[in-house]
């Protein structure tokens, strides 16, 4: 039976988070393009759209920080494993 290590679990989680990040970034880009193509005008406000865009960007930033920390942790685990194997 294969043993799942913390490194394996974290690597799997990172791949899933990276996929979600890509989807969220694409959605953010589409929303920004929509706002750019539909500026404020008589009868059209964009403040709500921009507020949602900022919220999406904040969530995307949080996911990016989590991914970056995970990548660093995997690197440290790999470095420690390489030193232990010697």
Describe what this molecule looks like in 3D.
The chain has 86 residues and is mostly helical. It has one domain. The chain contains two helices and no strands. It has helices spanning 6-37, 47-85. Helix 1 runs antiparallel to helix 2 (47-85). The chain is rod-shaped. 0% of the residues are buried. The model has no long low-confidence stretch (mean pLDDT 93).
Keywords:
86 residues; mainly alpha; 0% strand
* Separate helix tally: 2
> Distance N terminus to C terminus?
26 Å
Summing up helix and strand content along with how strands pair, one would put the structural category as mainly alpha
**Percentage of β-strand residues:** under 5%
Low-confidence stretches: none
Shape: rod-shaped
Total DSSP E strands: 0
Radius of gyration: 20 Å
Average per-residue pLDDT, rounded, comes to: 93
Furnish the topology, listing elements before pairings.
Blueprint: H1 6-37, H2 47-85
Helix pairs in contact: 1-2
Short account of what is shown:
The protein has 86 residues and is mainly α.
């Amino acid at each position: 039976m294969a043993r799942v290590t913390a490194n394996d679990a974290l690597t799997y989680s990172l791949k899933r988070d990276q996929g979600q990040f890509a989807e969220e970034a694409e959605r953010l880009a589409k929303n920004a393009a929509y706002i750019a193509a539909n500026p404020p005008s008589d009868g059209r406000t964009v403040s709500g759209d921009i507020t949602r865009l900022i919220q999406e960007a904040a969530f995307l930033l949080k996911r990016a920080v989590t991914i970056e920390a995970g990548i660093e942790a995997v690197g440290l685990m790999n470095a420690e494993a390489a030193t232990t194997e010697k």
